[in-house]
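hey so u asked for the seq, here:
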Amino acid sequence: MPYYYGFDWTYVVLVLPCILLSLWASANVNSTFQKYSTQYSMRRLTGAEAAQRVLSAGGVSGVRIERVSGNLTDHYDPRSNVIRLSDGVYNNTSTAAIGVACHEAGHAVQYATGYAPIKLRAAIIPVTSFGSKLAMPLILLGLVLYSFSYFGDTLIYLGIACFGLSLIFQLVTLPVEFNASRRAMEAIESVGLLTEEEQKGARKTLTAAALTYVAATAVSLAQLLRLLTLFGGRRRRD
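ran it, C-alpha cells below
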C-alpha cells in the first residue's frame, strides 16, 4: 500500500533520496567551481580564449563566443551557433573557468562533427518537452474519470508514458555531457592549455558538473517508478 495513514511512502523511499542527491550535486558543483576559481593557469588564458583554442583544434570555425550574465549559466546555443560564457568564466583565467569554457566548446564541436547523441537530443527536445508538460494533467484527468469510464485508465497510462519521455531525454543527455567533457580535457591536454597539475582542477570541476546530470536522471527515474507504483496497476471496477 503506497499510502499509510495519508503518508506517501513511495515519495520517501523512491524520490526523496534522489532529490537529496540532486541537491548535493548542485551544491558540490558550486563549491568545486569556487575552489578551483582561485587556481589560476600559468598561461593566463581566459575562458573565452581557451574555448576558441578548442574550436580551432577541432577544426570548427564561425562560432561566436559571448558573455552572458549569471553564475554558471554557460551554454552552447546551436540555433545561433554561439557559445555563451558566464561572468565567472568569460574573462577568468582559472582552471575551473577554462574547464567549463572548453566543455561548452566541446558541444560546439559535437554539432560541427555530427555527433549522433547530440543530434538525437536536439531532435527529441520538442517531443519530450511537450510530453512532460502533458503528463500530470493527463494523470489527474484520468483519476477524475477513473470511476466512470475505462477512458480514465487510458489517460493515466498515457500520462505515465508522457512522463517517461523526460527520462528518455535525461538518458540521451548523459553521453552528450560526458563526451563534451572528454573532448574538453583531450583538447586541454593536446593544445597545452593547462599544465598537468592544473588539469586536475578542470577535471574535478567537470566531474562535479557531470554528477548533476546523473542526479537529474536519477530523479526522473525515481519519479517514473513512483507513478508506476501508484497508478500502473489500477483497474477500473465495474
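The chain has seven helices and five strands. The longest strand covers residues 64-68.
lmk if thats what u needed
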